[in-house]
Design a protein that fits this description.
By secondary structure, the chain is of the alpha/beta class. The protein has 14 helices and nine strands.
């Protein structure tokens, strides 16, 4: 990109049940972010919310968040998709030259106040799939898992190993909602069955959470932080075929989004140039599937990569060192939380989850059944 945009600060929070309201959570996140940076609401040129009216249970739900976010009577907008898309919108607003700062506030209270699976069910065909009640987010994900395993002849044990690694990482991360210290593949394999081959610990947990993040132009970033993390590239893509018409063993929209982000960032060899990945994998099989689409794992070699330790925090290509979405998935906020976790890594602030070398990171977010829409960011220091 000709102009530079930086992430200068963030606040995030998640738990199975935060015992709070959307308004209170918005206030806590934004007030904490302002305090961290030593600013007030007048320092924010534009605010972009990422929430979902359907899950919030009311239309134009962002109007109730303007006051708690300090955005009352100020420039404000909304994106009804995963928070990573709102972040991209914020970058575009700054690149326009009309704004020097932009704050993104993403929220999802899908642990305590609404069924986390309901919104995907209502994205399915109303004349057949909803009536038959056979397809839903979990059963569709099970079809995707089975397709992926069959494509490469993988054992179901791969799902257990992927989930065990993610859950172990999440247990060391104070920002995660689900913590299972010492999670093992055997423990994952013995968890409650959902839809074959998926079990409870292969799937994201219902989660309350959110993130507030401030972005700034290069000039303004110098005034706000001495640890800017730069947005080097971004891309987005959506698969136009309906669920039953897609090849669920691959994610061409992720590959296309990544290609756009890499081209913008000047990345030619992702495996060699990227130090870690934060992937919004809502189910265990999606982590290697999406990592392949991102060009970080060789197709058909996922079992070798996980068993050799290449994908671990100390490995050649750390995948979800934070624990990823298996540690918590507050819908609408997951992608921006993955971004915040990547920022922690690039700043060297990830504690027990810190990877050895962290200079360039790729971040992924998704929407829709079986990752219908995907977005990719490349971040660097």
């Amino acid at each position: 990109m000709d102009k530079k945009v930086a992430i200068v600060g963030f606040r995030m929070k998640s738990a199975p049940d935060l015992v709070t309201t959307r308004e209170r959570l918005t206030f806590e996140l934004t007030r904490g972010l302002f305090d961290d940076l030593g600013i007030d609401r007048t320092a924010v040129d534009t605010t972009i919310f990422s929430t979902n009216d359907f899950l919030d249970g009311r239309t134009i739900s962002n109007v109730f968040l303007d006051g708690p976010a300090g955005a009352y009577m100020r420039d404000e907008s909304k994106v009804e998709m995963d928070g990573i898309n709102a972040l991209m919108y914020a970058v575009i607003r700054i690149l326009s030259g009309q704004y020097s700062t932009a704050m993104v506030v993403a929220l999802g209270l899908t642990g305590s106040q609404v069924s986390p699976y309901l919104h995907v069910e209502y994205q399915l065909s109303p004349v057949y799939d909803r009536q038959m009640r056979l397809l839903n987010e979990l059963s569709a994900a099970a079809f995707q898992a089975r397709s992926y395993l069959a494509r490469y002849g993988y054992s179901e044990k791969l799902l257990d190993e992927v989930a065990a690694q993610a859950l172990s990482n999440a247990a060391a991360n104070p920002n995660q909602a689900r913590k299972i210290p010492g999670a093992s593949a055997e423990q994952v394999a013995s968890s409650s069955p959902y839809y074959e081959p998926l079990r409870e610990l292969h799937c994201y947990p219902p989660t309350d959470g959110g993130c507030a993040m401030l972005l700034a132009s290069a000039e303004r970033a110098k005034e706000l932080t001495d640890k800017p993390v730069w947005v080097l590239g971004m891309g987005q893509s959506i698969e136009t075929f309906y669920l039953g018409e897609r090849d669920l063993a691959k994610s061409p929209s992720t590959a296309q989004a990544a290609q756009r982000a890499y081209e913008m960032a000047g990345i030619r060899d992702p495996k060699a140039e990227i130090d870690l990945a934060e992937i919004s994998a809502l189910f265990a099989h999606q982590e290697p599937l999406l990592a392949e689409a991102l060009g970080l794992l060789e197709e058909g070699k996922a079992e070798e990569a996980y068993r050799s330790g290449d994908t671990a925090i100390s490995g050649k290509m750390p995948l979800n060192p934070s624990g990823g979405a298996l540690g918590g998935h507050p819908i609408s906020a997951t992608g921006i939380i993955r971004t915040a976790e990547a920022v922690r890594q690039l700043r060297g602030e990830a504690g027990d989850n810190q990877v050895g070398k962290a200079e360039v990171a790729v971040v992924h977010g998704q929407d829709g059944p079986c990752a219908q829409q995907n977005a990719v960011l490349v971040l660097g220091i």
